[in-house]
Specification:
The complex is a heterodimer of chains A (313) and B (249). Chain A has two domains: 2-165, 3-Layer(aba) Sandwich (Rossmann fold); 190-310, Rossmann fold, CATH 3.40.50. Chain A is 27% helix and 28% strand. Chain A has nine helices and 16 strands. Chain A has helices at 16-26, 42-49, 70-80, 93-105, 209-219, 227-231, 262-268, 285-288, 297-310, and strands spanning 2-6, 31-38, 56-61, 86-90, 110-114, 116-119, 122-127, 132-138, 143-147, 162-165, 175-182, 195-199, 222-225, 252-256, 273-278, 291-294. In chain A, the strands form three sheets. A seven-stranded parallel β-sheet of chain A has the order 5-9-4-1-2-3-10, sandwiched between helices. The longest helix of chain A has 14 residues, at 297-310. Chain A is elongated and about 60 Å long. Chain B has 249 residues and is α/β, with parallel strands linked by helices. Chain B is globular, with a radius of gyration of 21 Å. The chains are: A alpha/beta (313), B alpha/beta (249). Chains A and B meet through helix 3, helix 4, strand 5, strand 7 and strand 8 of A and helix 3, helix 4, strand 7, strand 8 and strand 9 of B. The complex binds flavin-adenine dinucleotide and adenosine monophosphate. The site of adenosine monophosphate has 23 residues of chain B, from helix 1, strand 4, helix 3, strand 6 and helix 4.
């Protein structure tokens, strides 16, 4: 019984989410191997080899794998799948893209975004925007699973697994990478930040987001947004927190000018402490916030900045 | 070019569902049902491709109960040309749906399939990718922009780090993200016209596909609830509470 976990990385460093995915995969029983598929990704494999609980790292390198496109990723994983009882990945946009393709090629179902491992065949997962939690049992010989990483702690370092190069199947040529436009930021990554401050439609314009960024920099926080703020073009798509965006679970989540729709709540409800700043005391966000402040954000945010400074932050 | 748009009938996105007391599922009695919002975006995109002269026909297909016919009718009222309902009262999983869709595609000879990225009931985000695998087609998931040029289609995708543009060989599978377009509302005259558009009703058994479920749902429970919070009077009080009560910094 062995699990193959597919690593998330950018060919230079391993994503934090992979450490959390390792914790989940370790609970599935048996040995754990990690697959690093990329191009020029040897340093990522070395990093993965140091994670505690990892028995072996497979390194697959070829240029079509550089951006982890679904077609070559699926062909690669299917070529390796024979030896494994479970194939898992983080529920990142990358995993969400290639994992169902792998599952279907193996004629397996997929269990998406697990929150817990109940036993080797039983998992919980959110449905209906997290308004219900399903306990799902599979009887399939092979399991294909994506992991909601915010539900698991990061695995420790301290392992020393071997790295083994594996052959890569010929590329089918179905898809090719053209370009990317990545959001550049020195702030922590949204899904692993300890503090997140998000803005909604109430921010009125992208020009007002620097107000939140200033606070974020004071607190070492990441900046997020509601769908409405993304749709309106205030901030890029990768800021979106919610059912169909990113799921976050920081120690502190500050929602500014966000009403608290079900779909937004779904992405931040597991935060330890939730603060809402909204001028409408009827806003649904106040029903789920630990601390609510009914105020105009354009006065409250500059004040918050001052108070944080006074508090030595 | 023929486009197929698979659509799912789901609980309306404004409804906050409740778990049944016996934890056997969620309570769907008297709950408003609608077309999955990502499927509306898929239909809108198909219509725009037809309006732009790229597509010739748009077929809307749904697998589900008889009532899913209403959802197909909504798609026809938006502007799709005809519908197919594959009737099944069983709860199907994405792999089963993908197998059925593959059979429909082989019968209809379509060139492009546009699905939603995710159905907002099961939140699976699987069907399009599985369908692409079964057909051996390319896939462009979470699309926020499409450009078709001959045998190729450039797809801009919403990814965790920002945006990525890839080129796909046709035929292809696309799944929609929120920013692809803003779906139109069906006008009253179009709703009337849609009543005359054909919907083919098929039985699942006609396709000879084994779509039996592989997973067993043992229970469906309420998520952990949060304690009601407090309203603070000032920013100073908020910072004090965060520091001294919540201990977050
Ligand atoms: C299929 C689907 C998927 C979706 N996925 C997501 C998702 O992943 N994430 C997500 O966030 N949403 C998602 N949504 C959208 C969701 O339903 C809401 O429309 C959205 O979250 C609303 O964003 P908002 O709270 O910023 O805007 P609004 O609901 O318009 O709220 C703005 C708030 O700002 C307050 N405000 C205005 N001015 C001020 C001021 N000066 N000071 C203080 N407060 C002010 C207002 O009182 C109001 O409460 C999805 C919807 C659908 C249909
Ligand atoms: N029963 C169904 N009938 C037709 N299309 C479906 C059905 N279920 C899912 N789909 C399509 O697959 C997409 C993704 O659904 P899912 O993989 O279940 O999250 C939906 O947006 C639809 O386009």
């Amino acid at each position: 019984m062995t699990t193959l976990l597919i690593a998330d990385h950018n060919n230079e460093t391993l994503a934090d989410s992979t450490l959390k995915a390792v914790s989940a995969a370790s609970q599935m029983g048996g040995d754990l191997h990690i697959l690093v598929a990329g191009a020029g990704a040897a340093s990522v494999a070395d990093e993965a080899a140091k994670i505690e609980g990892v028995a072996k790292v497979l390194l697959a390198e070829a240029s079509p794998l550089q951006k982890q496109l679904a077609e070559p990723m699926a062909d690669l994983v299917v070529s390796l799948a024979g030896d494994y009882t479970t194939i898992a990945s983080a529920a990142s946009t990358s995993g969400k893209n290639f994992m169902p393709r792998i599952a279907a090629l193996l004629d397996c179902s997929q269990i998406s975004e697990i929150l817990s491992v109940e036993d080797e065949n039983t998992f919980t997962r959110p449905i209906y925007a997290g308004n219900a939690i399903a306990t799902v049992r599979t009887s399939e010989a092979k399991k294909v699973i994506t992991i909601r990483t915010t539900a698991f702690a990061a695995a420790a370092l301290g392992g020393s697994a071997n790295v083994e190069a594996v052959p890569v199947p010929d590329d089918s040529g179905l898809s090719s990478f053209l370009s990317e436009e990545l959001t550049k930021s020195d702030r922590p990554e949204l899904t692993s930040a300890k503090i997140v401050i998000s803005g909604g439609r109430g921010m009125q314009s992208g020009d007002n987001f620097p107000m939140l960024e200033k606070i974020a920099d004071r607190l070492g926080a990441a900046v997020g947004a509601s769908r409405a703020a993304v749709d309106a073009g205030f901030v890029p798509n990768d800021y979106q927190v919610g059912q169909t965006g990113k799921v976050v679970a920081p120690d502190l989540y500050i929602a500014v000018g966000i009403s608290g729709a079900i779909q937004h709540w779904a992405g931040m409800k597991d935060s330890k402490v939730i603060v809402a700043i909204n001028k409408d005391e009827e806003a649904p966000i106040f029903q789920v916030a630990d601390y609510g402040l009914v105020a105009d954000l354009f006065t409250a945010i500059p004040e918050l900045d001052e108070e944080l400074q006074k508090a030595g932050l | 070019m023929k486009i197929l748009v698979p659509v799912k009938r789901v609980v309306d996105y404004n409804v906050k569902v409740r778990v049944k007391p016996d934890e056997s599922g969620v309570d769907l009695a008297n709950v408003k049902m609608s077309m999955n919002p990502f499927c509306e975006i898929a239909i809108e995109e198909a219509i725009r491709l037809r309006e732009g002269g790229t597509a010739s026909e748009i077929i809307v297909v749904s697998v589900g109960e008889q009532a899913a016919q209403e959802t197909i009718r909504t798609g026809l009222a938006m502007g799709a040309d005809r519908g197919i309902l594959v009737k099944s009262d069983a709860a199907l999983e994405p792999l089963g749906i993908a197998k059925i869709l593959k059979a429909v595609i082989e019968a209809e000879q379509v060139d492009l399939v546009i699905l939603g990225k995710q159905a907002i009931d099961g939140d699976n985000n699987q069907t399009g990718q599985m369908l692409a695998a079964l057909l051996g087609w390319s896939q462009g998931t979470f699309a926020s922009d499409l450009k078709i040029a001959g045998e190729k289609i450039d797809v801009t995708r919403e990814i965790d780090g920002g945006l990525q543009t890839i080129s796909l060989k046709m035929p292809a599978i696309i799944t929609t993200d929120l920013r692809l377009n803003e779906p139109r509302y069906a006008s009253l005259p179009n709703i009337m016209k849609a009543k005359k558009k054909p919907i083919d009703i098929k039985e699942l058994s006609e396709y000879g596909v084994d779509a039996s479920p592989r997973l067993e749902i043992l229970k469906v429970a309420e998520p952990a609830s949060r304690e009601a919070g407090v309203v603070v009077e000032s920013v100073a009080e908020l910072v004090d509470k965060l520091k001294n009560e919540a201990g977050v910094f």
